[in-house]
Amino acid sequence: MPNDRLRTAMLEHGVTPASLAASLGVDPKTVERWINGRTPYRRHRFQVAAFLGVDETYLWPDALNPDQVANASESEIINIYPHRWSVPSDLWRNFFDNAERDIGVLVYSGLFLSEDAGVQRIFRQKADAGAKIRILLGDPDSDVVAQRGADEGVDDSQAAKIRNAIVMYRNIRDVDGIEFRLHRTVLYNSIYRADDQLLVNTHIYSFPAAQAPVLHLRRVAGGGMVTTYLESFERVWDSATPLETR
Q: Does domain 73-245 fall into CATH 3.30.870.10?
């Protein structure tokens, strides 16, 4: 069966069988066989995935057995913090400062981040350097934000924090490369992305996000945790509304 995912990824990146073969040091006919359904050796799968900027398990979902996927996913865990407030403040800045391509923020308000002038400065610098910065805030008029406020026992304060965050971001909202959207999604986690690293702040019923654990993850070839969170981010992004139109 043809590998349509591989074919599509190559087309999206303007990569031909000849150019991919040259980058890997293989015969173009070998690449054609991969497109037609043959599974490459592991080292070639890793090289192709890295070259195309996608995950190996996306291109060849059946290439790794469940134990291999589980082991790789476990290796994606760098650290676990018992509370968001226990994450060192300099880690947040270093986390975003190390990004080169993609920075993403998916929260309801993330007010602590919008109040950090150093983080905002990093966002501006990264956008000026060509990185893509995407910030998703909860729609303060949505039912899901009202429900989250009720769950935490803060009621309308949740929506107020989002409006405050929007104001705090006013100096970078018009910067090229930085885009803001509002979402109406039930969040089970807040997600912070810096290229292939994530800080995932879990949400716990009746507790504010600052009291909930944070997972520090880095993508590992063959792992599935980071990819799952990134796919979730993209789904929320696609359904969200640009802030500028509100």
A: yes
